[in-house]
Write a sequence for this structure.
């Protein structure tokens, strides 16, 4: 039963960390909005899905790569990858801001109850998914291979592949930059102020609408970066991938303590590793069962998630 | 405009309309119009299979309409996306539409199971070109499609051994890892493959297999298992869209194991989505129109504007069973069902078409295909 885990431990761990970082970035989209508005942005899963098409379109239609093209190298590789990343972030960021503007802002201004925003979020989510379904005729869309998946080296029997290394390092940098932004920048401080006490923040002259729009934008940008890594690793997207990935990232956010950025980080990584280890030990059919049993157990002992307490303290 | 003028204009219009209707109906009286349906995935990830099949049905109807001037046969397209959940939404309407006297399909086994209650209730005769799940024609199964369900394709209890043999052909001391996508089609097929493996000389099952949800994109745990097991042959019994993602990741991991799949992967789109990683993949499926003859394929392309695809022969033959029934005056569902059940004829490619009492085709088998230069290459029937 544990033979696979022992034999392939490092391969699995690297794969789990890479997947975990994708979860971290998507769960930032959930956790940032929750931290400020105390509301689950259910449309985040579809913002992720839309972001994946940003990368595919850049690779396929702007740089004209096809399934049979040679992968890019050198400077061109850098240009294509950065353009795809920026495009995915742009698409997801823009979608997130539009979602806030169309589905939430007016409801918030009217002071409607939380259930109305919840339904509005689900509605927007379904709309985004259905629009993409119609645009792609419900088909899976393959992304051409831009990055050659070279095996760089072998560490403890595990292949270290270029795409995995790029995903882990770049995602970690993006996470670090975001965390610094929230901690140190003026806007970051305003976001935290609104998160702690909306009324007091308003009295201190914080522009609430601007803070909320920025929160959606930042969450969208993180989610968009995740979309780029997803397509770079899996070279594929489909109108319905958002549900599975969004559900996992939301679980990661809750596991880490929703509303808390550090929680999203550790929740995402834990979930990525847990999924991979559980699939290898028990079989993939047990992946979801294991993940949710662990989630329930964590919530039983730490109802606010692994880092939930920190949120309570900052809010107190 | 004065009132009298308006009134006379109205009268003239009414007379003209009535006259038009009469002349139209008298023109139509000479032509008998009937509808047959096709059900399968016409959109969604599996659409390629359905589009290939419905084109063959349309081709058969086009030939029939051209050869029989007194008939105008229409094809009703029923899109179930190959998904049981969608099938259970579209099947009630199709079952209740009495204008449809026969249905080619459903294409997929899971969708067939979901649709059957409505078609049994409506007495709608079915001939599937590609639903291969064994339970559909097994009398002790809740999925038993009798009396309406028939199929012109062999079943998975025949495909399983064929896939086991074809996947391991020429591989000495084959160590085989088999996994499925948890679907109604893939799980039993995996069972038949695994049951047949000990009978293949030198082959053995390794690693305990896996069962992966069909929404999976990260196959790294399955690949880890394959590597630990030392498998040199990997068989996936699911469908082509997931197979393409998997085989790319398998090759990226450095594995050179033979990749094989059943007729769910047997689709040109598999090679398109997986690119170079699909090269050399071994698939079981049924011979296409081009295998029947270059002349037949050329005629199809000329008529339909595109090349024929997977299950073209089966879909064409299934449609022709209904069309010959219509020609013989079987224009109600009950009469058509009797016609199909007792049908005996020779289909395209010389296949003898007749059904066993449970709805299975009396003869038939699977061929082996290898992806060569991005195309499905028929290597002949698997014996």
């Amino acid at each position: 039963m544990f033979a696979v885990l022992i034999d392939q431990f490092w391969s699995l761990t690297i794969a789990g960390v890479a997947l975990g970082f994708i979860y971290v970035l998507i769960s930032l989209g959930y956790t940032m909005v929750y931290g400020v508005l105390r509301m689950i942005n259910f449309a985040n899963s579809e913002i992720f899905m839309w972001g994946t098409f940003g990368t595919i379109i850049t690779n396929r239609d702007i740089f004209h790569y096809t399934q049979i093209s040679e992968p890019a190298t050198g400077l061109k590789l850098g240009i294509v990858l950065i353009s795809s990343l920026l495009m995915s972030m742009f698409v997801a960021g823009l979608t997130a801001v539009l979602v806030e503007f169309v589905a939430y802002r007016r409801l918030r201004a009217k002071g409607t109850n939380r259930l109305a925003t919840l339904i509005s979020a689900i509605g927007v989510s379904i709309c985004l998914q259905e629009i993409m379904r119609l645009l792609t005729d419900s088909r899976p869309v393959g992304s051409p291979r831009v990055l050659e998946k070279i095996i760089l080296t072998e560490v403890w029997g595990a292949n270290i592949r270029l795409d995995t290394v790029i995903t882990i390092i770049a995602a970690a940098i993006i996470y670090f930059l975001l965390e610094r932004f929230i901690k140190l920048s003026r806007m970051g401080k305003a976001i935290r102020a609104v998160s702690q006490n909306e009324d007091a923040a308003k009295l201190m002259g914080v522009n609430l609408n601007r803070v909320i729009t920025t929160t959606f934008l930042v969450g969208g940008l993180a989610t968009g970066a995740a979309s780029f890594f997803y397509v770079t690793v899996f070279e594929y997207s489909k109108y319905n991938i958002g549900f599975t990935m969004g559900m996992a990232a939301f679980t990661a956010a809750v596991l880490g303590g929703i509303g808390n950025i550090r929680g999203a980080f550790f929740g995402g990584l834990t979930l990525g590793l847990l999924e991979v280890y559980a699939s290898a030990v028990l079989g993939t059919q047990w992946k979801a069962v294991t993940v949710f049993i662990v989630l329930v157990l964590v919530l039983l002992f730490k109802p606010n998630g692994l880092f939930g307490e920190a949120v309570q303290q900052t809010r107190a | 405009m004065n009132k009298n003028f308006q009134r006379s204009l109205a009268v003239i219009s009414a007379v003209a309309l009535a006259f038009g209707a009469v002349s139209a109906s008298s023109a139509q009286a000479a032509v008998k119009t009937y509808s047959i349906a096709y059900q399968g995935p016409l959109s969604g990830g599996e659409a390629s299979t359905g589009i290939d099949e419905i084109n063959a049905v349309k081709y058969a109807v086009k030939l029939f309409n051209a050869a029989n001037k007194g008939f105008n046969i229409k094809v009703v397209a029923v899109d179930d996306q190959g998904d049981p959940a969608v099938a259970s939404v579209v099947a009630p309407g199709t079952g209740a539409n009495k204008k449809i006297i026969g249905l080619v399909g459903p294409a997929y086994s899971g969708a067939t199971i979901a649709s059957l209650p409505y078609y049994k209730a409506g007495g709608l005769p079915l001939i599937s070109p590609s639903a291969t799940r064994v339970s559909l024609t097994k009398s002790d199964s809740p999925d038993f499609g009798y009396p309406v369900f028939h199929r012109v394709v062999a079943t998975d209890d025949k495909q399983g051994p064929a896939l086991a043999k074809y996947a391991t052909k020429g591989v000495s001391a084959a160590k085989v890892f088999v996994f499925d996508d948890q679907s109604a089609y893939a799980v039993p097929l995996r069972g038949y493959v695994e049951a047949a493996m000990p009978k293949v000389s030198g082959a053995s099952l390794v690693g305990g297999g896996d069962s992966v949800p069909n929404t999976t994109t990260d196959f790294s745990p399955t690949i880890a298992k394959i590597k630990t097991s030392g498998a040199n042959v990997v068989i996936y019994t699911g469908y082509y869209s997931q197979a393409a993602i998997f085989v790319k990741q398998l090759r990226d991991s450095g594995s050179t194991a033979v990749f094989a799949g059943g007729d769910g992967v047997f689709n040109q789109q598999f090679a398109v989505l997986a690119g170079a990683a699909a090269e050399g993949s071994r698939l079981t499926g049924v011979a296409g129109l081009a295998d029947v003859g270059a002349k037949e394929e050329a005629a199809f392309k000329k008529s339909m504007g595109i090349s024929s695809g997977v299950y073209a022969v089966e879909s064409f033959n299934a449609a022709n069973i209904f069309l010959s029934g219509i020609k013989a005056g079987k224009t109600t569902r009950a009469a058509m069902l009797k016609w199909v059940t007792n049908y005996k004829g020779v289909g395209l490619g010389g296949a003898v078409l007749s059904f066993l009492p449970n709805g299975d085709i009396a003869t038939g088998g699977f061929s082996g295909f290898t992806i060569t230069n991005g195309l499905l290459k028929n290597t002949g029937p698997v014996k």
Notes: The mean pLDDT of chain A is 89.
